[in-house]
Amino acid sequence: DKTNIDLTIQNLLFDFDHTKWLVDKNEPVAKFFFYNLPKYLLGLTITSSLVILILNHKNKLPSSFKKYQRQIFILFLGIILIPLVAGNIKKFTNIYCPNQLAIYDGKYPYTKILEPYPVDFKPLKVGKCFPAGHAVTGFCFMILFFVFKAGKRNAGLLFGVALGWVLGAYQMFKGTHFFGDTLVGMLCCFLVALLIVRFVNLVWKDGVQPSLHKKG
User: Fold this and answer.
1) Taking the CA atoms of the chain, what radius of gyration do you get in angstroms?
2) pLDDT confidence band for 206 (50 / 70 / 90)
C-alpha cells in the first residue's frame, strides 16, 4: 500500500514552480546509462549464460565447467523469469505513475493501492506503474545470492539490490515511480528468485543436470 512516505519523497523530486521533475526523461546521457545500458547488459548476460549452457551440454567446454552448470542454470532462469514475472505484474494493478497524476500536473487522480478511484473517473488508459518495472532489470541480479558460494552470497545480493535501487532512483527522479513501487518490485523479485531455486532443487538430479526421471 502507498503511504505518505511516497508523496513526501516524490514532492521533493518535483519542481512545483516550473511543473517539472528534477531529471528530464529525455536527457540522453542519463537515459543511456540508467535506462538503455542496463537492458543491454541484461541481454548480454542472458545470451552468454545460454551459450555457456549449450556448449557445456555438448561437452565443448573444459570439464571443470560441469560443476558450475547448476549455478549457471539458476542464473539463466533468474535473469529471464524474474523480469518476465515481477516486471509484468504492473499490467494488472491499474496504478498510475507520479508524472500521470493531477497533483503533479498530470490527468489522473491519486489513490492508494487498495483504494477505489472516484465513481465519476473515466480513465483514458489503464495504469501500469505498480510495482516498478525498470528497476527489475537490476533487482533480477539478486539471483546471484543463490549462485555464488557461501562466502560471496552477500556480495551477489548487494549487487542486485544496489543496481535495482540505482535504476529505481532514476525512475523516481524523472517521475515514473514512487518509492513504494520500487520497494515492492524488489520484494517481488526476491520472491520469484526463491521460487526458481526451489524449482531447480526439485528437478536437479546428481548435481549435473535437471531431470524428471526416476532412478533405477
Assistant:
1) 20
2) low
